[in-house]
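S1.2 Input.
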Amino acid sequence: MMPPSLTLGDPGQFEIPNVADPAHFCRNNFASACGNSDQGQSVKFAKGTTTLAFKFDGGIIVSVDSRSTMGAYIASGTVKKVIEINPFLLGTMAGGAADCSFWERNLGMQCRMYELRNKKRITVAAASKLLANTMSSYRGYGLSMGTMITGWDETGPQLYYVDDDGTRLHGRYFSVGSGSTYAYGVLDTYYRPDLTVEEAIDLGKRAIYHACHRDAMSGSINNLYHVTKDGWVKIHAIDVNDMHYEFLEEKKNAMSS
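S1.3 Output.
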């Protein structure tokens, strides 16, 4: 029996495979996988990024790169991987760019609807739960997302990790993406809750730099945000190449002294 014909490009509809069981097709041919476990798939996710966020006494630092890759091909060097959900809430992108961008903007709509209905700003915990619930309802459909939802509410600074399986974790710091192991190495070594704002910014900057230096799928621009009780502020957008020469000079001076 032939599957029903589908009209592509209908407004307000998802494009789905023109097969009898689209969900089964996606699970078998378009699953998000780690390592080489997707070798048998017709379509493989080729992804790479480095994103991180951590809480400290002065608020929250969110630091990301801006490189978008398709395997060895660098598709873009200016991707905005921090999504500004509202003036007090930020989300990060890792995995499939379209999935993260669409669903986090959808989360922004849900957060705004909550504000209009309840006359108050949504908490970070509630926002992350909304995204986790959405991901749970689409589990097994081939989404690729590893995001952090962070911000400041009446309980103070909060940070959550949410992925495409609907997993939701609360923590002090997270790093997501192909370069996250390198970033974790820097964070595990130098992170302290009592960092000053200047030290925290420098830590976020260095962690992204070292990840970009060792991971070919990460790079281009380091975008860094600082979240406080007054909302988020974008601190800088620095080319990773400029950081390389800055830290190289710093290393030479330290070795000569």
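S1.4 Remarks. The helical segments are 22-29, 97-118, 124-137, 180-190, 197-214, 240-256.
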